[in-house]
Amino acid sequence: MKKIVLTGAAGRLGSYLREPLSKMADALVSTDIAEDIGKLYEGESYLKADLGSLDEMMAVMEGAEMVVHFGAIGDEAPWEDILHSNIIGARNVWEAAYQQGARRVVYASSIHAVGMHLKQDFIGIDAPHRPDTYYGLAKCFAEDLGSLFWDKRGLESVHLRILSAAQVNNPRSLGSWLSYDDLIQLVQRAIEAPTTGFSIIYGVSNNDRAPVDNHLASYLGYRPKDNAEQFAEKVLAEAPPPDPTDPAQMCQGGPFATVELGHSGTATMNIVNDKKEV
User: Fold this and answer.
1) What is the pLDDT at residue 225?
2) Average pLDDT over residues 210-217
3) What ranges do the domains of the chain cover?
4) What sign has the CA pseudo-torsion 24, 29, 33, 37?
């Protein structure tokens, strides 16, 4: 294809997507609110742009065939911040993609759109929305936005409900882990699928303890290869005793299920910033 747009290119997950996406099109336009993202890959250019500005998104999307939307705030935050970047920003991405003639949006949704469901329920992609935070609510909005734009305007979208794309260092991550290699495969399959309409798929590796069911999304061709069980002995040996009365341990959203609205859900999660360097 001729042009792919990647939002959130300065973020941790974006750093792992830039190189493979640059090989899938003649041009990759990466964008974020950072001043720059350092060295660029062959065929990649960078445009600083604010998701909250439709005009800026229109400029970024010009000529794009695919949009990989990983931008916005990646944690629970005050309502006004979520509204600007994650809700208005999502609307601007879809509107600009439609007006500029893009074929599909591949969106970094989140398990937090359904975060208050119990892990033991083994939910599928058809589980009803049950957000755990304003952050999760914004993911619900973007999923419904994608559905609306498919039904009314024919713009395809694939919504990747990512569980936890970070190093495995706690019991929850034994089920929720999405390795970076599997993340890349997931995005590539969402781009390469001949048709998708409006689709949802969980972003999770091939973990023995995965708490979600992706079989209804098998048509996308995603077949994860990595398994967090390799870390289980060490993680469980170092973890405190489990508490089945704690929603943070029982719910899909983990700590987001108990955090106060507007307050960080990642603050207690010990996420390692192993961002890829070019």
Assistant:
1) 98
2) 98
3) 3-257
4) positive
Is 135 known to be catalytic?
yes
108-142: pLDDT as tens digits:
999 999 999 999 999 999 999 999 999 999 999 99
Distance CA 16, CA 26 (A): 19
Cβ contacts of 152 within 8 Å, gap of 6 or more? none
CA 225 to chain centre: 19
- Tokens 């009803």, residue located: 128
Reply yes or no on domain 3-257 having CATH 3.60.15.10: no
The token duo for 186 is 């997931």
pTM, entire model = 0.97
Q: With contact defined as beta carbons under 8 Å apart, do 159 and 109 qualify?
A: yes
Cα(61)–Cα(109) distance, integer angstroms: 20
Q: Which of 107, 135, 180, 202 is catalytic?
A: 135
